[in-house]
Amino acid sequence: MDIEKLKQKNLELTKKKVKESVSDDQLIINTINTIEELDKTLNSLSMRLRDWFSLINPETEHQLQDNEILLKVIVEDELQKSEMGAVLKKQDKEQIIKLAANLKNLFEYKNSLEVYLEEVQERHIPNIQDITGTLIAAKLLREAKSLRKLATLQSGTIQLFGAEKALFRHIKTGARPPKYGFLLNHIIVQNSKEKGKTARALADKISICARLDYFKGERLGTKYFEELKEKWKK
Amino acid sequence: MDIEKLKQKNLELTKKKVKESVSDDQLIINTINTIEELDKTLNSLSMRLRDWFSLINPETEHQLQDNEILLKVIVEDELQKSEMGAVLKKQDKEQIIKLAANLKNLFEYKNSLEVYLEEVQERHIPNIQDITGTLIAAKLLREAKSLRKLATLQSGTIQLFGAEKALFRHIKTGARPPKYGFLLNHIIVQNSKEKGKTARALADKISICARLDYFKGERLGTKYFEELKEKWKK
């Protein structure tokens, strides 16, 4: 086999590997990154839309706290001015309605992306998703970088995912060590009086779920969730 | 006139004042704020889109430096995978194409908003816009908060708009004082070897333009622009 052939073969193998390297892990990580970016975007552009809206309808801007409802009002009412609202030219209004329409599309896209994330996770990490919910599952996976790695981690590591800043502060300054990161947002931890202990117990179960998912084992996530919920209710 | 009537009259006057208080100043300030927010948004969401695109076409992602061109390729080619690209399911691709479509709309909206800004400034601050260009004019107005205030400022203040951080550093630590803020982005300052002096001369003319616009004077912005360009060319 001459050198040229060897090179050719090598190149083909590399291309094949690159092609196959895209996994559900990467799809999930890309999706949660995009969702988080959209969240930031929607917040900051909604603030700008509120600036505009309060010129035209200063009375009700603060009553419409929810951004999605504000958008609906603007798009459907076509920016009817209120008693105290400014009289704007048609071309001025057009720009504001266009902003609202774009934001509405982005909201819808974000919602569809969350449904999509749930679907990918249903096939890749069903047990983890059952016990943590869609968004926390994705954040844990992103932190570990892959399901393979997540399945090999100690539960104490999983418990502290998302608390890296506080952990380093603890190591450097001797401040109190953190008890939870992303898991603080979990409904069971939220509702518990002993948040640290609950996060610990939850992380234990997540660690088992990660192994079940990696080795394509049974579907026990929901059972674990119910057990934890019963044990740590207020 | 009894108290009730006085109250009523007072309320009416206040409402009238609020209604009339929306001026071209505010339209311009809202528009430049929205444009800047869109710039940030488009950059960060384009980064996320690149993450996706490089899964499917790792060979050409880095060749498409311009985000608008990248979008065009994705939307028109419907994400044809390259030789080394990953094979994605239809539903995976759909999400990516939706992101690209949303971004394309946002780019178009941003462009239309710049045209709109130019129109409002054409009626409100034509001389300033002629000498500084659309975006710098809006930033200077925003900094001053209104044309009325901009017309009363010394040119030295206008010269340093956008350089507040450096100015405070100078005052606190005695570091070298700044020579320009937003004006550094002006084409004539960019092309000049003596940027400080050029910014100074430009600020002088902007200050005159602000007064011309405020008092609805002659249209001299373009003449000043040409004079400066001639004087400070390399």
What's a quick, concise take on this entry?
Chain A is mainly alpha-helical.
Key terms:
mainly alpha, extended, about 75% helix, homodimer, 12 helices, about 230 residues
Question: Could you describe the 3D structure shown?
Answer:
The structure is a homodimer of 234-residue chains. Helices cover 74% and strands 0% of the residues of chain A. The first copy, chain A, has helices spanning 3-20, 24-56, 67-77, 90-124, 126-132, 134-144, 147-152, 155-160, 164-173, 187-191, 195-214, 221-231. In chain A, helix 3 (67-77) packs across helix 4, helix 4 packs across helix 6 and helix 5 packs parallel to helix 12. The longest helix of chain A has 35 residues, at 90-124. Chain A is extended and about 75 Å long. Chains A and B meet through helix 1, helix 2 and helix 4 of A and helix 1, helix 2 and helix 4 of B.
